[in-house]
Write a structure and sequence with these properties.
The protein is an alpha/beta fold. It is built from 19 helices and 14 strands. The strands form three sheets. Strands 1-2-7-8-3-4-10-6-9-5 form a ten-stranded mixed beta sheet, sandwiched between helices. About 7% of the residues have low confidence.
Length: 456
């Protein structure tokens, strides 16, 4: 058995284990409660992996009053979502839970366990006995000043609050005394709290874009997040919870579009299943050193593009407090501010980074291209000109319809190659550089039937 009277369990809690019995532990916890004021709760301490947790049952009264959720806003940028602790609150999901509770609270219902992270101004104390067992029983004193950040279960808590407002007084008085199991973590690292949220969401999957914002176990997602964090063209300008960009949004890309850019830079492909992409990236960069080197390479390339392409440079230089100006810039209809443009730059970037002697010289030439969609480079590939004449006034209204088919994007990529004086690498030459003897070399471009829309 350990001979320490007080040991540390994470940054927020101390384990006091010099009690001769659980009765002694309970007395000491209640004594602290009498001095400081708060709540004393029986808890179980246990280990998962290399971290320790507490599990107990808390009354709905305490949960609905003190548990808080820092939810991401809809259409928030990736940076804003990373500061939040939870996905956007879904009103219809909250209403469904509240309706279920109201209808079943006097009979049989179940409210699954919650996961929260405890925040305190000083370490808490968990009173228990001295034991070498990994699962131990004891008493936790929670002061009134403690706060609880929900890791998993924000919709259940919001639904319980909503149900309380709808229940008659007598039934609500009974309902607030019901208990809900709560698993408490003691995590100061916000990224670990986000990872806990992503891991808990595997029971109810998150939208792919938001899951990518929190899940750093996938090296492709990690590079996507690092790129957004380190590149000014993306920082605070990427919507993580939306599939499209509103015309009046100061953001310029969706998370899915930036992920397609990273995918093209890494694999020269932008389609295929999420599972296949994850496996391909793991095969490409399996070690931490390889991942860091590749991130640095992609950041350097993106920063060079930002410096070379005038509209990117203008947006990157726009102060955060003047972000609304980006709306006017986007009105210029630039291909490089669209999903197709990111894929084109990603595929060209893959070729330059892997086969060009001095890729920076070609990046400078990318900056000299006319990226507005009316240019023949784009109207001959990923834009279709549609001219509509007004029968009453006569003037013709010209619009440009997006064409996202693989053949159209491939034609645009070839147009860009010609504009910068770059020739597509010969598969035979590529095989001599990349492949082992007698290894079959295949063009990494996606098949026609695999192509997905680049608008999201």
């Amino acid at each position: 058995m350990t001979d320490q009277s007080e040991i540390t369990m994470g940054a927020n809690i101390h384990i006091v284990n010099d009690n001769t019995s659980l009765d002694d532990a309970a007395v000491r916890a209640m004594r602290e409660n009498g001095v400081a004021g708060g709540t004393t709760l029986p808890m179980i301490r246990f280990r998962q992996g290399n971290r320790w947790f507490l599990q107990g049952v808390l009354p709905i009264n305490l949960i609905t009053r003190q548990f808080e959720a820092r939810s991401a806003l809809k259409r928030a940028s990736v940076a804003e979502v990373e500061k939040a602790a939870n996905r956007p609150l879904l009103d219809d999901h909250v209403k469904a839970i509240a309706k279920y509770l109201v209808e079943n609270v006097t009979s049989a219902y179940i409210l699954p366990g919650l996961s929260v992270n405890i925040h305190t101004t000083r370490p808490l104390r968990f009173y228990t006995t001295n034991s070498d067992e990994l699962i131990t029983f004891g008493y936790l004193f929670l002061p009134h000043s403690a706060s609880y950040s929900i890791t998993d279960g924000q919709h259940r808590v919001a639904g319980a609050r909503d149900a309380l407002d709808k229940l008659p007084q007598g039934i609500s008085d009974r309902f607030i005394e019901d208990g809900v199991p709560v698993m408490m973590s003691l995590e100061n690292d916000v990224r670990q709290a986000h990872q806990d949220f992503a891991d808990c969401s595997r029971v109810r999957p998150l939208p792919p874009a938001l899951l990518a914002t929190y899940d750093r176990r996938n090296p492709g997602n990690r590079m996507f997040l690092d790129l957004i964090e380190k590149c000014e063209i993306f920082r605070d300008k990427v919507e993580s919870t939306s599939k499209t960009i509103s015309r009046i949004s100061p953001n310029i890309f969706t998370a899915n579009q930036v992920k397609s850019y990273v995918k093209a830079l890494l694999l020269r492909s932008w389609s295929g299943s999420v599972d296949q992409y994850e496996q391909d990236v793991r095969d490409l960069i399996s070690t931490q050193d390889q991942q860091e080197a590749k991130v640095n390479e992609l950041v350097a390339f993106t920063q060079a593009l930002t410096e070379a392409i005038p509209v990117w440079k203008q947006i990157a230089a726009t102060p955060k407090e003047q972000k609304a100006k980006i709306i006017d810039i986007r009105a210029g209809r630039f291909v490089c501010l669209e999903g197709e443009g990111l894929v084109i730059l990603g595929c060209i970037g893959y070729e330059l980074l892997n086969y060009a002697g001095d890729w920076r010289e070609y990046v400078k030439k990318l900056g000299a291209i006319n990226w507005q969609e009316a240019d023949p480079m784009w109207t001959s590939s990923i834009r279709r000109v549609e001219a509509l004449e007004d029968p009453s006034t006569g003037p013709t209204n010209v619009t440009y319809r997006k064409v996202s088919a693989y053949s159209a994007v491939s034609a645009a990529i070839e147009n860009v190659r010609q504009a910068i004086g770059w020739r597509k690498p010969d598969p035979i030459v590529m095989s001599q550089v990349d492949a082992a003897p007698n290894e079959q070399v295949v063009d990494p471009a996606p098949k026609e039937e695999e192509v997905q829309s680049l608008s999201s």
